[in-house]
Specification:
Strand order of the largest sheet: 2-1-3
Distance between the termini: 13 Å
Helix content: over 70%
Order of helices and strands: HHHHHHHHHHEEEH
Strand content: 5-15%
Length: about 300
């Protein structure tokens, strides 16, 4: 039952300690990625340069994890790798901070806290916009920071977790559709899309099963394809429908108002919906652990 033990270890470590406050491996990786991007993202053949940068950053660490994992205690390394990739506790803390600020009527603090979760501008947000942005971010990051990492841990152990988390980090840094990264970050964005293809749909299905299932499935089917990201669309549409909320709509990025497609169905988001989104993610996590544990036990009996 090493798979379920590894996942249980990673989840417990995250629950107990949260993100490492100093010397987090992903911080060092991000610094290395920023340094390399400045040196490669120049001149011609930027798609190939981006692919080279991705390989130089991700391949050595993934292969090193595969080599180190060939020990009788490899399941412990799997669990530790998962811990560094998970962000369940951090996600809960950030979401709760926004909800508490709204509960106390402190819009300025709520805007500041929302800024930790989203890339859109928050300075002029009202309560509904704060609740909407935070709920969208929580639902999407439920996949990126929790379920995607667990999926790849179950599939390939520490090498799978490291591959997924590093690819996701490079997509977050390089996967922008702007003049600087449109070509250089194309490979990073496509690889992240591929690695998230199955986990995102399993996450969307889990959200749907644990809430307003019919509304969630209908929203997923009707709305996911209109979203810019092939994986965020299903996750957020199903999550919004499961909660009975209408998300999406306008948002300001770099001073420009973007009209985004609708997500879900129901009433607009409110501050009280942020804890509901966190509860949906928490129940989804327990369901995943239960299913993986039962599957692991069944595999050992057969």
């Amino acid at each position: 039952m090493s798979i379920s033990l590894s996942i249980l270890l990673g989840v417990l470590l995250d629950r107990l300690f949260g993100e490492v406050p100093r010397w987090h491996p992903l911080v060092g990786f991000g610094n290395a990625a920023a340094w390399l991007e400045k040196r490669l993202n120049i001149g011609h053949a930027r798609i190939l340069r981006g692919a080279l940068g991705w390989a130089l950053l991700v391949a050595p660490l993934t292969l090193a994890a595969a080599w180190l994992n060939k020990t009788p205690y490899g399941w412990i390394m799997d669990g530790i790798a998962l811990y560094f990739a998970l962000g369940a506790r951090a996600l809960t803390e950030h979401g709760s901070d926004v909800a508490q600020a709204l509960q106390h009527g402190d819009l300025e603090e709520a805007r500041r806290r929302t800024g930790y979760l989203v890339s859109r501008e928050t300075a002029q947000m009202n309560e509904e916009q704060i609740a909407r942005a935070t709920t969208e971010s929580l639902l999407e990051n439920g996949n990126d920071a929790i379920f995607g990492a667990i999926f790849w841990c179950a599939i390939a152990g520490a090498p799978g977790v490291i591959l997924f988390r590093l690819a996701n980090t490079l997509d977050a840094m390089w996967g922008y559709r702007n003049a600087r990264f449109e070509r250089f970050g194309k490979v990073a964005a496509r690889i992240d899309d591929g690695l998230n293809l199955i986990p995102a749909r399993l996450t969307a299905l889990t959200y749907a099963l644990l809430g307003q299932t019919r509304r969630a499935l209908a929203s997923w089917r009707a709305q996911a394809g209109s979203w810019s990201s092939p994986n965020a669309g299903p996750v957020m549409a199903a999550g919004a429908g499961s909660l009975g909320l209408q998300l999406g709509g306008s948002a300001i990025y770099e001073g420009i108002i973007e009209e985004r497609p609708a997500l879900g169905a129901g009433r607009p988001a409110e501050g009280r919906d942020i804890p509901r989104a966190l509860d949906l993610i928490a129940r989804s996590l327990w369901l995943w652990m239960l299913v993986i544990g039962l599957g692991d036990a069944l595999a050992h009996f057969l």
